[in-house]
Specification:
The protein is of the alpha/beta class. The chain has a single domain (4-331), classed as TIM Barrel (Alpha-Beta Barrel). It contains 17 helices and eight strands. It has helices at 4-10, 26-36, 45-50, 57-67, 74-90, 102-106, 112-130, 146-156, 181-189, 204-212, 229-238, 246-251, 263-268, 280-283, 287-298, 302-314, 320-334, and strands at 13-19, 93-100, 133-141, 165-169, 193-198, 218-221, 242-244, 273-275. The chain has an eight-stranded parallel beta sheet. β4 (165-169), α9 and β5 form a beta-alpha-beta unit. α5 runs parallel beside α7, α8 (146-156) packs parallel to α9 and α16 packs antiparallel against α17. The longest helix has 19 residues, at 112-130. The protein is globular, with a radius of gyration of 19 Å. The protein binds hypoxanthine and zinc ion.
């Protein structure tokens, strides 16, 4: 049997589904709460971790938005982002496309630029010091109104060159993609690419809406697509990528256990599946841990691991020549490994 731990360590990785607010480790949360004199309902790191037992997406989001209250200054956003990049470098992540949720912060009176500048400074430092390339994706909170999303888009327009795409996250059921058709029209007109969370808890119909109305380039999660065979055929034909987050799906009870996750079925269907960590500080593992646990639980083989690693670069928004360069580094890892 191949040494899967080493193989996964060695894999050059691209991470395409990562909420920067979801990388706030309890230790940093406590440190920032002290530094900024913000009250949080926990007395210790242990208490914070104990609170991380979720029954569905909403039960997580309530705690996730409360935790973000410790983030106030440009330095805080820098520290948060740089800590993630160091962790990602340890997992051999070479490229990352990071979500941020400006409304979580502007709602609390933090300026859009404070958030963007802090994250952007860290991404530049990550490129220089760690060799990780990156793009930023602005996510609209779908539980808020379309008007609120449009106002947030207006705030982003002067910073177009620092934001590659817009996306849609937060509470899915009851907030279909169609609610944001006008916002996404305007975003695409302004030159942003588009993605959306769809088919995590919501039905396959939301995936269709995201494709048809929001003209998305990737689906975040998308695991419920298998309930609609015609939709799967379309996703396979067009090779629309799915950014799947296995440990997140188990923590939020989309699947009861990792052994029951449908990732292998998605791959078998010919879908362009990728593995990502979503909110690693809350869900028990960064991208490497997602690879290791999923590999073991589903018995993934060498060929499937190579496919997953290749898919992530192919599904990225990098220019074609950079994708080709990364694919060669992935393939080099598999040279001489017997499948
Ligand atoms: N789904 C929806 N919203 C989110 C998620 C997620 O997995 N993570 C952070 N915000
Ligand atoms: Zn997500």
């Amino acid at each position: 049997m191949p040494d899967f731990i080493k193989l996964i360590d060695d894999l050059p990785k691209a991470e395409l589904h990562l909420h920067i607010e979801g990388t706030l480790e309890p230790e940093l949360m406590m440190r920032l709460a002290r530094r900024n004199k913000v009250r949080i309902p926990y007395r210790s790191v242990g208490e914070v971790r104990q609170a991380y037992a979720f029954s569905n997406l909403q039960s997580f989001l309530d705690i996730y938005y409360a935790g973000a209250a410790v983030l106030l200054t440009r330095q805080d956003f820098f520290d948060l982002t740089y800590a993630y990049l160091e962790r990602a470098a340890a997992d051999n992540v070479r490229h990352v496309e990071i979500f941020f949720d400006p409304q979580t912060h502007t709602e609390r009176g933090i300026a859009f630029e404070v958030v963007l500048d802090g994250i952007h400074d860290a991404l530049q430092a990550g490129q220089q010091n760690l060799g990780i390339s990156s793009y930023l994706i602005l996510c609209f909170l779908r539980h808020l109104s379309a008007d609120d999303a449009m106002a947030t888009l207006e705030l982003a327009l002067p910073h177009r060159e620092r934001i590659r795409a817009v996306g849609l996250d937060s509470s899915e059921v009851g907030h279909p993609p169609s609610k944001f058709t006008n916002v996404f029209d305007r975003a695409r007109d302004a030159g942003f690419l588009t993605v959306a969370h769809a088919g995590e808890e919501g039905p396959p119909e939301y995936i269709r809406e995201a494709l048809d109305l929001l003209k998305i380039r990737r689906i975040d999660h998308g695991v419920r697509c298998l309930e609609d065979t015609q939709l799967v055929a379309h996703l396979v034909d067009e090779q629309i990528p799915l950014t799947v987050c296995p440990l997140s799906n188990v923590k939020l009870c989309v699947f009861d256990k990792l052994e029951e996750h449908n990732l292998a079925s998605l791959l078998d269907a010919g879908l362009c599946v990728t593995i990502n960590s979503d909110d690693p500080a809350y869900f028990g593992g960064y991208i490497g841990e997602n690879f290791r646990q999923t590999r073991k639980a589903l018995g993934l083989n060498v060929t499937q691991l190579q496919l997953l690693a290749r898919n992530a670069f192919k599904a990225s928004f990098l220019p074609q020549e950079q994708i080709a360069r990364h694919l060669r580094t992935v393939d080099a890892v598999f040279d001489g490994i017997v499948a």
